[in-house]
Amino acid sequence: xxxxxxxxxxxxxxxxxxxxxxRFMATSDLMSELQKDSIQLDEDSERxxxxxxxxxxxxxxxxxxxxxxxCLGPLVGKVKEYQVEAIVDTLCAxxxxxxxxxxxxxxxxxxxxxxxxxxAAPGSSLVTTVCRxxxxxxxxxxxxxxxxxxxxxxxxxxxxxxxxxxAPLGTFHASLLHCLLPQLSSPRLAVRKRAVGALGHLxxxxxxxxxxxxxxxLLGRLTGQREPANPATILTLMQCVGSIGRxxxxxxxxxxxxxxxxxxxxxxxxxxxxxxxxLQAIEAxxxxxxxxxxxxxxxxxxxxxxxxxxxxxxxxxxxxxxxQMETEDSEFSEQESEDEYSDDEDVSWxxxxxxxxxxxxxxxxxxxxxxxxxxxxAPALIHRFKEHEENVRADVFVAYIELLHxxxxxxxxxESLEEPTQTGSNxxxxxxxxxxxxxxxxxxxxxxxxxxxxxxxxxxxxxATVLPGSLAEHMPVLLSGIVFSLVDRSNSSxxxxxxxxxxxxxxxxxSAETFHPHLATLxxxxxxxxxxxxxxxxxxxxxVLQELVRVLWPxxxxxxxxxxxxxxxxxxxxxxRLRATDLDQEVKERAISCAGHLVGHLGDHLGHALEPTxxxxxxxxxxxxxxxxxxxxxxxxxxxxxxxxxQPILAKVLPILASFLRKKQRALRLATLAALDALAQSQGxxxxxxxxxxxxxxxxxxxxxxxxxxAQLVLDFLATVTQVQPASLxxxxxxxxxxxxxxxxxxxxxxxxxxxxxxxxxxxxxxRPPCVSYNELIxxxxxxxxxxxxxxxxxxxxxxxxxxxxxxxALAAACPQEAAGTAGRLVCDARSPNSSTGVKVLAFxxxxxxxxxxxxxxxxxxxxxxxxxxxxxxxxxxxxxSYALGRVGAGNLPDFLPFxxxxxxxxxxxxxxxxxxLREALGAAQPNSLKPYMEDIWALLSQRCEDPEEGPRAxxxxxxxxxxxxxxxxxxxxxxKQLAAGHPHTRSTFITAVKFLITDxxxxxxxxxxxxxxxxxxxxxxxxxxxRRATLAFFNSAVHNKPSLVRDLLGHIxxxxxxxxxxxRDLIREVEMGPFKHAVDDGLDVRKAAFExxxxxxxxxxxxxxxxxxxxxxxxxxxxxxxxxxxxxxxxARLATLxxxxxxxxxxxxxxxxxxxxxxxxxxxxxxxxFEKQDExxxxxxxAVAALLAIPEVGESPTMAHFSSQIRSNPELAALFESIQxxxxxxxxxxxxxS
Length: 1235
What we know:
Number of strands: 2
Structural class: mainly alpha
Shape: globular
Distance between the termini: 69 Å
Protein name: Cullin-associated NEDD8-dissociated protein 2 isoform X1
Radius of gyration: 38 Å
Strand content: under 5%
Organism: Echinops telfairi
Strand order of the largest sheet: 1-2
């Protein structure tokens, strides 16, 4: 016998002992053994263990029974199926025992087994067998109605089973439905409640036909067609409708027209419990079927407003008397008031709570009705802030906060207020409500109830976020309420933390002046919280103190409040915390950060406290856990315009900072470099030279492409040091330049790093005397290209050449006296027949920048050289010459522009390159300098619109766009005539040009362009495919960069857009390729552009979309071409996150194309690209599946549950799904925040 089997046999023997302690310990040891993954039982051991545990279920000792039933869970996965069947049979038999204790143990055992069963695919023999055994026996137990206890336990187990294992139970759904429906008429309330819960789970998972049968049964009973229903039965039926609405409301859409009149009718019956159930059902309908509820919104609103104030047992007219009694602080009067209105029989508060929740659902599901909600719902909700029942008041607050959420503008509120749009008018309405809100909350801010005050703070914080500055005139009331909560130590710490968080938010949204009169009252309780022993309160208080210092004494504005009277208290409280050694880590970090702000903003008022504070910061820099916040605090002190004297700590700080540059912690390195730069700028010549050199020796190794952000900060610091202490660079300039040149040649170089490199090089030659001579730097920059040419090596990457050229130009700009000579050398290099392609490209790219400052001499010679280069056999040389011609021309328009226009007319072979030159000139020149040539350029470009080649037309379109920006009111009206022109190429070019008028930053053309957008979008009805595609590209750009241009026109545009998503059979043609026929879809590009627009709309105009209509077209795209399916999979994943309710309504239809894609196989013998394409498509579909599975109720869908099980049972799909989930989990990255 093996060792585990022997051990288990000994345990089984002990279980038969007459001593209950032996039995208990043996069962406990068996539990431990069964929980081990490594344990394997032979057949004989299985049988004995199962038999013994079933015996112990009837043990006389309750503790042994409880342990035995817990053992059943892990045992299920360790024994064969027939043993599990034996366990289930025994437990089901025990369920019908006469002994109540045995029945309870059997019920717990069955629930334990069900919880351990894997949610496997339908057809999994273990799950199916167990479900069949349990369902058959429990449905009989429910139907027989012999013992209510048995019925209740059986219904509980069935409900659990349906919630977890709905898919494997598919074959039993009909019998379960027919078993559960009669229980709705049971005389026992507990039986009816459990039947309602089980039917809710069943409704989510059953087939469409069974769901229809269930819905028809309920409708028949509610209308009295099947049999007259008594009030108790009607209440149960309405609870059942509500349960189905919550679990499977998305399936009820087709029945709402018949259900809603009944629900409204029963709402008016004089029974509060029934009213509550009706309102709960309506809430579920609003959340799950928002579109189908559209016709019933008016009546629902009326019902909710009616029952929101349904309070027959409370007299609100006596509120004034109650307030008077509270101020007298009479215990007797308080007790009397509470007793008077604590009637246990009064359930009207549940009706009011259900009405408030219903209003929250209504507001959240219909953002398009916000103006009406502000007129009708907002006053009613504000009026109900006086609600005396806490639970109801909390839900009234939630409903009003939901209204604020929906009103929140997509951008800054001031801009939204100025716009004559729906959002602006909603914000104006909200502004009018602010005084009413404050008046309604004034008493609650000092209420005895913590929950009431927390609700007030949450609501006011949201209001301040939506309308910043709107609470300024009510500040005395708000601060009085905040102070009341801060000094209230009789209650839990939660309310003080909430008050501090609200105060911090208020400091960020209201002007500093509003706090000035109240600071003397506000500061002492905040400082008391700073000293609080509870770490969470202290940490929150430090954030508030930091914000107070930052807002009330800003550095970039004149200070209107003298800090002298507050400095002593603040510095004393701060220093006490900084000196403490037993602080929580979070409090330490917040205290150090607060110290940085205090010294940075008010260091000149600290007096004798300044040096101890700086010394404490220095001490914290030498402690591993506080060094990062200490370095950030030091940076705040250094960048302060107060220019504080940091001499006492500089000699010690610099070596510490130098050592931090060697640490692997990236956030520490970034913070250190920022602090060093700030110290160099503020302290300048005061920095001790030996310590500065020690820091500089650490820098060359950090100028690397492995971390571009670090490299950029290093270059910025070097530029600063070069300006203030050029002598310190003598030893490190060589190694630094060597690393910099390597970095400049990197194809991954970001523009920000290049800008920093230019600044550093200009600083090197700008010092007097220069740290490195101009010629030496030029030679260093050009050497890599020239040496490669001499050695015959490969040319540098195009990005590297551009970077080197920018640096050459930066040096020429810093030394204008050298520019002409440099330009002359570059012209010689460009003209020389011996120069390599790389040398010529570098020369032309450098001339593009240097040529503008080189003077007229080199520019005249440049024309000839550049024109010759346009005929070069090298494409790179031609492109560089074209770029240079435009850039140089922008600096000398009178000489270059007429010449360039003449060349475009005279040289058709070089037209494409010359148009590129014109584009660069239009982009680089000053708008006013272009106005004299505007008509000539317009005429030339208009002629080129009909070019048969798409490439030149695209450049022409961009040129037209740049030209229109020179004088929009004069040129933009001409677009209408051109868009009505006869040639499709012209229309296509001009509609493409509109795209270049849209920038991601505000521009003076925006208001004018907005008036033309509607006309431009009419081009979606153009018969030419290219025009429609160009229109969609322009629309996509507008939606992405400036959604305000199109948001108000979507009602007209969307039908045209959706029309373009449809497959047109007349655009599909067959092409013969040898013996094969290949279908070509000419409409594919337009459809793809339309779906791209739809995706952009999701990001910026979600509130203006009818999601159900939108989903119809997404659904069609899921079965379209590969490219479109990829797009719609991404859209579906986004929709599942943004608006899960409409997606859930049609998840059964959406999952089918996803399933088909995930299970598709590529034909044998296909090329490698087909396999790669299918893999990518499958991965994209699986991402959409993962997003759908994240919707909480989606698991109830039988189709989704089946496919989910199929994924788990298929190793390939399971591995793919797991990899996608791992990729979706957020990486643990270090913060790079420097503030």
